[in-house]
Amino acid sequence: VFHRYEMEYQPILSQNRTYGIANPGYVPAAEGAPAMFAPPAADSQGPSAPPASMFDSMPGYEGTVSGGGGGFLPPPMPAYPVPQPEPGPEQPHWNIPSITENTAREAFILFASSKCCYSSAPAKDGVITSMEAFNTYRYRLETFTESRSTEWSHEPYNGQSVDAFAQSPPGPWDIPAKSPNFFLNGKQIIKVPYTSSVKNCHVCVGMGRRPCKDCVGVGNKVCWVCKGSGFHHRNDVCHHCSGRGRENCNHCHGRGSKECETCRGKQQLLVYINLTVKWTNNSDNYIVEQSSGLQLDNLSKVSGKELFRDSQYMVYPVMGFPDPTVVHAAQRLVSEHQGKYSQTSRILQQV
User: Fold this and answer.
1) Whole-number Å distance between alpha carbons of 345 and 259
2) For a tag site, which of 41, 77, 269, 327 has the least CB within 10 Å?
3) 264 phi and psi, to 5 degrees?
4) CA distances from 22 to 10, 36, 320, 323 (A)
5) Burial class of residue 109 (count of CB atoms within 10 Å of its CB; 0-12, 13-18, 19+)
6) Which tops the pLDDT comparison, 114 or 7?
7) β pairing state of 186-191 and 268-289
8) Alpha-carbon distance 277 to 149, whole Å?
9) How many CA atoms lie within 13 A of 304 on its CB side?
């Protein structure tokens, strides 16, 4: 859309590029930096996401997009057979902990003394004829995984190394990464070698500057004191704008444009692929509460006793436990973890 104005205009040139039209009716205060002119528009700030054509097609990374969204990359098939989980040692006697009569009596006395209307005499003098254990069991399975994802990224070009197409980039699972200790979450971002290239900035179209959104590229705005009339209190010349009716935009200092925040005024971007490596400890619990009265929310506050521990590349379900629900839960969780996490990540260790 073109507009016709009844005044002369001169194109403003900066670095051999046309930015806009000079406004002959107003002289901005900024020296050597004429104002830009741009009519208000909904998309005056330009695209925020780079176009797909900005990225080269890299072998092995064809599905990579900008800003993520490409999903996790499944690990390749192992080049050698993975170790199979081995059953844990037989546990003929699980040695389920129990308390002594004295410990039970002390707990009974403590409970009675905590109640204002309870007598502690039965707890002290009563005869304990039988004791029955009501235990709470917790089965926990932790699976430590490594997942990898890629995305196109960019940064202002300041003369960094450009290596795209010098040779084929290594595969996403061939790039070495330093993992943290087992069962500790971690993250590492690695620039993929041989994917870096230089492109014109998509936000400022290689200009290095953007129209100021506060003055819409004009470099000045209506004076807020005189509301554009140039006068204050009838015939008094407005001292704020010296009678011009307009004032310099304080956001761009009267230039009408601001440095492009994406390329930092460099006009070009270094475009490359980032590899994100994540290490995650995935944990699931199964609780069996045998009428013990222990609230599950308070389970983490008690010490308890560890009955069994197994740590392998992939663990085997616990076998022969006195409570069959724990055995069934172990079989279910092991199967779910292997099916869930081996599809999108690499299982490093289980415990």
Assistant:
1) 42
2) 77
3) 55, 35
4) 6, 7, 87, 85
5) middle
6) 114
7) antiparallel
8) 7
9) 14
Exposure b/e, 264-286, CB count within 10 A at least 16 = b? ebbbbbbbbbbbbbbbbbbeeeb
Instruction: Return the structure tokens found at 258.
Output: 């601001």
User: Tokens 């994917």 map to which residue?
Assistant: 195
Alpha-carbon distance of 259 to 208, in angstroms, equals 6
Q: How many helices (H) and strands (E) does the chain have?
A: 3, 13
Question: What whole-number distance in Å separates Cα of residue 59 and Cα of residue 52?
Answer: 16
The encoded tokens of residue 271 equal 């475009």
- The closest of 248, 242, 211 to 229, measured between CA atoms, is 242
Identify the residue with better confidence: 5 or 100.
100
pLDDT at 43: 45
Two tokens at 73? Answer: 């990359």
Contacts (Cβ under 8 Å, ≥6 apart) of 329: 139, 286, 288
What distances in angstroms separate CA 69 from CA 42, 201, 341, one per listed residue? 27, 22, 19
Confidence of residue 71 (pLDDT cuts 50, 70, 90): low
- Find the length of the chain: 351
Both tokens of residue 77?
A: 């098939």
Cα gap 134→151, rounded to integer Å: 53
Q: What b/e string do you get for 293-324 counting C-beta neighbours within 10 Å, with b at 16 or more?
A: ebeeeeeeeeeeeebeeeeeebbbbbeebeee
- Please report where in the chains the tokens 């995305």 appear, as a residue: 151
